[in-house]
Design brief:
- By secondary structure, the chain is of the alpha+beta class.
- The protein folds into four domains: 122 residues, Immunoglobulin-like; 138 residues, Immunoglobulin-like; 131 residues, Immunoglobulin-like; 116 residues, Four Helix Bundle (Hemerythrin (Met), subunit A) (Up-down Bundle), CATH 1.20.120.
- The protein has ten helices and 31 strands.
- Strands 22, 24, 25, 26, 27, 29 and 30 form a seven-stranded mixed β-sheet that branches. Strands 11, 13, 15, 16 and 17 form a five-stranded antiparallel β-sheet that branches. The protein has a four-stranded antiparallel β-sheet with strand order 1-3-6-5.
- Strand 16 and strand 17 form a beta hairpin.
- Helix 6 packs antiparallel against helix 10 and helix 9 packs antiparallel against helix 10.
- The longest helix is centred in the C-terminal third of the chain and has 29 residues.
- The protein starts with 20 loop residues before the first helix and ends with a helix.
Length: 626
């Protein structure tokens, strides 16, 4: 007999991939046989739930601790229950602090026959001549509707508890760079999500309404990047969801109403299993994952808007910020009736869209066209800036020295807190050409088309050709073309209505619409994952591949986000007659993504490329099957 106190095992390791469950049983059994510890004998019973519905199955488990030479297992009479399966016997061995314990487990599948409150009596077993007995268990059997209502109430309570926990670890916050501004001055509003949970997906469910203000969305990264930030003494993962430049259009107090976001939060739950080896080989990556829809909203923010100073210059048209103006003419020497351009460019920081053209006064003998405008707005960063250009096309009709008087552009400078007026230079044009008789007559209609030079086809002459002729006495309504022109619009309208109705029906079925677009959405997400692959961002890559696979399977097989789990997906794929190797490949790829995000690796790039190719093949295989 070996003395366990003198037995010392060093560097104890069991490679799980090499030694299976049964090999471990043999090893522990040998140690148990050699060591023979003194373990107390105990016989107990338990059920997986004490409230069931008629026709519903539940599990009765009998556990014998500290003995293996048992015999004469006997169940009590249970006239109100049917034994569907059992006994199913298994053995559980544990080695804790140098002590080996062994348990024998007997499992029965029972089903109630009628509604009521019943008792499962004590079971008995003989161990070494000693009779051991379990305690009775009370079971309440309800009607199916009552059980469903109770389960629904329990689910709602559980859901409420989960949402409360999520609410303590997830919120949306609106941040402004200032709360006191002038009318027309920019204020930047940033909506941030603060989280300490895993967000699978999010969607803006309600935009923030901002009355009495002009808004301009600023550019942010398409992929939300989380950074660490301390807020109110706690560390959070913070990501920017939206950024908007706000320009108040009137003074007083304005409110920024809440922005609402619906998030899909992934919650890790413990896996329930009757397999005793699952506790020994407890793997945190293979637990049950539950997706919970959670809606959150930002707080209201009030802004104090100051009015602009009174008595602004006459050239002021409401622009606020910091600007500069450039003006020039395309040429100084022109021919009579030749077009020339006056170009004005105003650039700076502020609401560029609201810039209006300065008031340009031309000589009376100039023909002027409405200005063409073009704007180039920069929305990167936190400040809106850009350029707005205007081009006047002018045609001098008489020769001579022609002057274009200076014009002004005025804006309110928020830093100087005063109006700033910019003034253009005076332009002088030397206009030549035209015969003396045309100068004296002053009749512009006498000008021939040779006297006018075309500038980029801006001026066109009246058509001078004779055109086509038709035979007199034959009218259009008497020709086949007239009947054809009547029928074609009618037929085209009917076809348009039919196609539109079909399109409306197809788009109304959101589930089918998502299923049809699942592959395209997955392809776009894989492009993002490929970008992370090229940048060697390991965690972002595996997270994006995992989101791609879960999103594709949910959209393609109409599985709600809140019900997506590995068990539900495998069951759904099995119902769709998906081949076992395809189902296995999907599961292995998901497990690889979850494990690789945290596990160290020596060849990260090769493993990421292999995972990327496996994800593509899995999606293609599922698409072919469907």
């Amino acid at each position: 007999m070996w003395d366990l106190r003198k037995l010392r095992i060093t560097n104890y390791q069991l490679p799980i991939k090499v030694i299976g469950h049964w090999s471990l049983v043999v090893c522990v059994f040998l140690v148990s046989a050699l060591c023979s510890p003194l373990i107390a004998q105990n016989f107990s019973s338990a059920v997986d739930r004490t409230t069931v519905a008629v026709g519903e199955q539940f599990t009765l488990t009998l556990t014998l601790d500290g003995a293996t030479n048992a015999s004469s297992l006997k169940l009590p009479d249970m006239p109100n229950f049917m034994v569907l399966s059992g006994p199913n016997q298994s053995t559980n061995m544990q080695w804790v602090n140098g002590q080996v314990s062994q348990s024998v487990i007997f499992t029965y599948i029972l089903q109630p026959r009628d509604v009521g409150k019943f008792t499962i009596g004590g079971a008995s077993i003989n161990v070494g001549g000693k009779n051991l007995q379990t305690q009775p268990i009370a079971i309440e059997v309800l009607k199916a509707a009552q059980q469903q209502q109770r389960q629904q109430n329990q689910k709602q309570q559980q859901q409420g508890s989960i949402e409360q926990q999520i609410g303590d670890n997830l919120f949306l916050r609106a941040v402004v760079d200032r709360t006191k501004i002038y009318q027309g001055e920019q204020v930047t509003v940033t909506w941030k999500v603060y989280t300490r949970v895993n967000i699978v997906n999010y969607q803006l469910s309600k935009q923030a309404s901002i009355p009495n203000a002009w808004t301009e969305d600023l550019e942010i990264a398409q992929q939300v990047n989380l950074v660490r930030e301390v807020y109110e003494g706690k560390q959070w993962n913070v990501g920017v969801l939206k950024k908007t430049a706000l320009f108040p259009t009137q003074s007083g107090t304005i409110e920024i109403n809440p922005l609402e976001v619906e998030c899909v939060v992934q919650v890790q739950t413990k896996r329930q299993s009757n397999n005793p080896f699952d506790q020994f080989f407890n793997d945190p990556f293979f637990g049950n994952v539950q997706n919970v829809n959670y809606k959150t909203a930002s707080q209201k923010i009030k802004l104090e808007v100051l009015p602009l100073p009174p008595n602004p210059p006459t050239s002021f048209k409401g622009n606020v910020g910091s600007f500069k103006m450039e003006a020039k003419v395309t040429k100084d020497d022109v021919q009579t009736n030749e077009a020339v351009s006056l170009k004005i460019k105003i650039s700076g920081v502020g609401n560029v869209r609201l810039i209006e053209s300065p008031n340009v006064v031309l000589p009376n003998d100039f023909q002027k066209f409405d200005p063409k405008s073009n704007e180039d707005i920069n929305r990167k960063g936190d400040i809106v800036s850009g350029t707005k250009s205007f081009e006047y096309i002018m045609i001098p009709r008489f020769p001579g020295k022609k002057k274009i008087d200076p014009f002004e552009f005025t804006y309110f400078d928020t830093k100087k807190k005063e109006y700033v007026t910019m003034r253009s230079p005076e332009f002088t044009l030397n206009v030549t050409g035209l015969a003396s008789e045309q100068q004296n007559s002053g009749n512009l209609s006498s000008l021939s088309k040779e006297n006018v030079a075309l500038l980029k086809q801006d001026i066109r002459f009246i058509k001078t050709s004779s055109g086509s002729f038709s035979q007199r006495g034959i009218y259009f309504y008497q020709t086949p073309m007239f009947l054809f022109s009547l029928v074609v619009p009618f037929v085209g309208f009917i076809g348009f209505v039919v196609l539109q109705q079909r399109r409306i029906r197809m788009n109304a079925d959101l589930t089918s619409l998502k299923a049809r677009k699942a592959s395209k959405v997955a392809e776009k997400r894989l492009k993002v994952a490929n970008q992370f692959l090229s940048e060697k961002k390991k965690e972002d890559f595996y997270a994006e591949v995992s989101r791609t696979l879960w999103g594709f399977i949910g959209d393609r097989f109409a599985i709600p986000q809140s019900e997506i789990s590995m068990e539900n997906v495998q069951q759904k794929l099995s119902e769709k007659n998906v081949a076992e190797d395809v189902r296995l490949k999907f599961k292995q790829t998901i497990e690889t993504c979850e494990f690789a995000r945290y596990a160290p690796s020596t060849d990260v790039q090769t493993e990421m490329e292999r995972t990327y190719n496996e994800a593509k093949e899995t999606i293609m295989s599922l698409e072919k099957v469907v």
